[in-house]
Amino acid sequence: MGTRFDLMTNALGAKLAKRIAGINSVIEQSSLPKTVQHLAMLRASQINGCGFCVDLHTKEAAADGETAVRLNLVAVWRESTVFTGAERAALALAEEGTRIADAHPGVSDRTWAEVREHYDDDQIAMLVSLIALINATNRLNVIVCNPGGSYEAGMLAAASS
Q1: Using CA of residue 37, residue 42, residue 47, residue 51, what is the dihedral sign?
Q2: Terminal CA-to-CA distance of the chain, rounded, Å?
Q3: What is the number of structural domains in the chain?
């Protein structure tokens, strides 16, 4: 499988990618824990079947010190004991926010209450934005068939600077 279209070699595509990177930079620099950011982006990417993003977020999380055990258990986090209550709330929000079309009424009141219990307003703003952004990014990569496997930690930061 090869990439259908390289957004980065298209002037408008590259401009869009820089804007996305700028939004991501705001989220990365926020008080939302980096571990939570990695876990939520990885889970949404798994659900959306985005090989490129699963590759990227797994490797970036590992580079930031995340363990292989936890990364391997993200897909089955509900049946795992390695995630904190705050991480579980973020993973539930990532799943429900990603599967909006699959689950009426979208994000449950229970999940929202758990998120409110663990995060302040600024962190919630960043978590909600991160989930929306990763879903958009997943869709961009899936549409153009951007495959996973060749990403190396730090490549995204280097490309967006």
Answers
A1: positive
A2: 29
A3: 1
